[in-house]
Amino acid sequence: MAVESQYKWTMVVDIDRCTGCQACVVACQAENNIALNDEESFLRRRAMEWIRIERYWEGEYPNIKARFIPVLCQQCENAPCEPVCPVYATHHNEEGLNVQVYPRCVGVRFCANNCPYQVRFFNWWEPVWPESLRNYLNPDVTVRSRGIMEKCMFCVQRIRRGQRVAAREGRLVRDGEVLPACVQACPTNALVFGNVKDPQSRASRLMAHPRGYRLLKETGTGPNVLYLKKVDPEFHG
Amino acid sequence: MSTGMDRRQFLKAAATSALGAVVFAGCAVPKRELLVESPVRMPEDLVTGADNWYATVCRQCPAGCGVIVRVMEGRAKKIEGNPDYPINRGKLCARGQAGVQALYHPDRVTGPLRRDRATGQFSPISWNDALDLLGARLKALRGQPDTVVLATEPLRGSLATLVDGFVRAYGAASHLTLEPLESTPLWDSMARLTSPILSSYTLLSVLPEFDIANTRYLLSFGADFLSTELSPVRYSLGYGEFRHPDESGRGTFVQVEPRFSMTGANADRWVPVRPGTEGVLALSLAYVMISEGLADSEAARAMTGGRGADALSDFQPERAAAVTGVPAGTIVEIARAFATQRPSLAVGGGPAAAQTNGTFNLTAIYALNFLTGGVGALGGMALNPVPPKELPRAARPPSPFASWRRLAEQMRTGQPRPVNLIMFRGVNPVYSLPTSLGFAEALARIPLVVSFASIMDETATLADLVLPEHTYLEDWGDDVPVPGPGYQVVGYQQPVVLPVHDTRGFADVLLVLAQEVGSDMEQSLPWKTYRDMVRDGARELHSLGRGSIVEANIEAFWNRALQNGGWWDASDRYTGPLPQPQLLPTQAPTPEFAGDPHEFPLHLVPFASHSLGDGRGAHLPWLQATPDPITSVAWQTWVEVGRQTARQNDLEEGTVVSVESPQGRVEAAVYVNPALPPEVVAVPLGQGHSSYGRYAQGRGANILSILAPLEDRENGALAWAATRVRLVKAGRRQPIPKFEGTMFAAQVPGSEVIEVTRP
Predict the structure, then answer these.
(1) CB B751 to CB A219 under 8 A?
(2) Which of B282, B300, B299, B303 has the alpha carbon at shortest distance from B291?
(3) Beta bridge partners of B148
(4) For an interface test with A, which of B9, B37, B40 has the most A Cβ atoms less than 10 Å from its Cβ?
(5) Is A236 a member of any domain?
(6) Is the interface score ipTM higher than 0.90?
(7) In CATH, what number is assigned to the domain containing residue A61?
(8) A111 within a domain of the structure (yes/no)
(9) Average of per-residue pLDDT values in chain A
């Protein structure tokens, strides 16, 4: 029997508004109990950032530009990470999210290998916090142990909370009522989150934006995150 | 799991669905058996506890954003922006998010400590004993003139009133404030530009609102307003609207600066300029605007004494180009665009203000707004209203560097009188002041040194008494954010959790000390607790009977003020007369630099770290691990050099160099920044702590330590971008911890990662 959810979650990222400020990055780490990235993790290139800011240089001094783009899981329709998981730890849910079931993950890392966006993170070490810092850990989110793959799920714990509240009141989640931590923090409103099945949502109304493009579209992954192009008056391309 | 599947059934379902995926390929509707639940969809009874959200004020930087804190079972879990608060409207930066780590930091001072000077060892002391000791000392010193110093960060709100009251009632103390990258030149230039129409009270309380959201052409001289300057979250909100393409049209943003900042990276056009020549460039823009008849004629007449462009003939574009390094054609282009694409807005800060001619630079820059009618206008420089006397006290400019230089001298020599007692709250001068001032050595001569630090910082390690204060999430307070959003705002700070350790609020300690010193002090500071004082302030506010909270009684008002995180009145805007344009200078003071240009060939441009600020955020692991927006370096100090400089000096990423100024040297590894001008070397602030907790201690270098003690000629502000340096290879390499390169760069033909379009 076919079940159709009334939600399909999506995110729109306007890179013309992104300043590279990293507020989303820290908000994500705070919300999702991501292990502390120590100096060593950067040196070994194993820092974990479910959402990250990439910076690209263009041109030469003095006519040089730095451009920023936030990259997070694209929640692909044809996610290359999903079919390679031998234990169904990663799969697509009915609301368009690519979710990772941590207790099921056996850590083969095939999914991360297959992801063209490099947004899956493997816990190479047991995450440790000094005892006092554990006070702020989010009780809604599992702490992943060593050997587990972890990733962005649009803060599914917030979506679930919002849905519980809405269900109790016999309604659907309102536009803007549920926001992933990154979207919530973003000081320039470069990130917009919403339900594309609600035609009135801000995200839905941006779907046909003339600046819209999908990241690495040629790979055929069917990303569920829409980017809006950078605007540059000096661009000659 | 709520689907009621066991593992065997699940595996069966998985097998079926794998087949199903083939059969129903192309069918968008998922099948029930495909629905595997994430464990985070828990049955209702598995969710532990309900969450409470408390509104309070962020104190991670002086901007004073409103925050809400998620608290479960007595523990603070997450900090977010307060959606109602006018300063940040629900948004929050990385530093604000990290407040929970300050609260639960593993190296907090857990109770009062006393140091034995002979051994240098700290040992615990009870609050009673510590306060008796300090109280008795204060009492004994009261007869002697002005030998007690209280040093704090610049204060606002009831705390400012309390400290003022304490110092005045005590009678023999002085209060000094410290802001390492001080805003004195900004305050002074604003005072100059807005005089004489505003009263001195206004000048000292209010900075204008820069209406970035509504401007069409934004011209910034070194102001890093998206990252570290004044109120970054609010300016970022405005910037987001400024970039909105669908509404009023996308604004154009030009940044002129000697170092490629994060804010500069977001400009449509970035223009490098020689350090200290920003004011000349601004006057050259004025020359072009006036000579081409593009400026408001009345303002042009007033600002040139009726002489027109002739008055500024020293700043003709060709002449200015020779001084600033900005091509004459570029100057003319920017001047025309600034004058015609209105509303336009000129702002200045960062290294432009940190020169021996810093106040001159800023005055010339902000004066441009008069030529385009931008003062007091939408999309320009709006004036904030004067706070009525019912409001808690607003900000004052910091004590300039010169006063700290004099204090160090007084401490060292005991002239004109000795300093017998010094107390530090929220400042760390041993770390923040240039080493050449000898502050740490001078401190050893003071009989009693007290610190209120909650984490052992460099100054606290030299204190005789450490009286650890609450973190801001455990304490009361109020705030009048400066600069305000164009109307009156008062923020309320409340404890969101019980104190984690045996700490006390700084304000409460002052009230206790007042009682210990004498009954006359107790009378002038009549509150039992600081909470009472804050609440008394709310009573005054309540009596205004207007704004976002109007309630019949104070009890209801107070509750709602705490619930909402503050009070504001969007209708209370500045309505007084607009400041009149002033005469522009016809000559520019030459910036002075420390170090002979042959011996020290490069300009050192230090900058506040995006996440660590001036070093105050260095104890928090999230902020240490936040990659610098431009270089992506984390956890370390790096030395930015341009490609040409790197080539000429045979430097590459990871080459350790000694950065040597006439005052000292620090070592760090090179990062080659392709956007850095060849004559500049840029080093971030924040690291190089010898103390300050496990995450800060012993990493990187403190660039503040080698700055020359040059001052702004007009007000004694530290000219922190006026030191020259040379780079000497240390003969070793050190890999740079950075985020860049952590991911492979996906090269997909036909798919650019960043797609760009023209407006």
Answers:
(1) yes
(2) B300
(3) B173, B421
(4) B40
(5) no
(6) yes
(7) 3.30.70.20
(8) yes
(9) 95
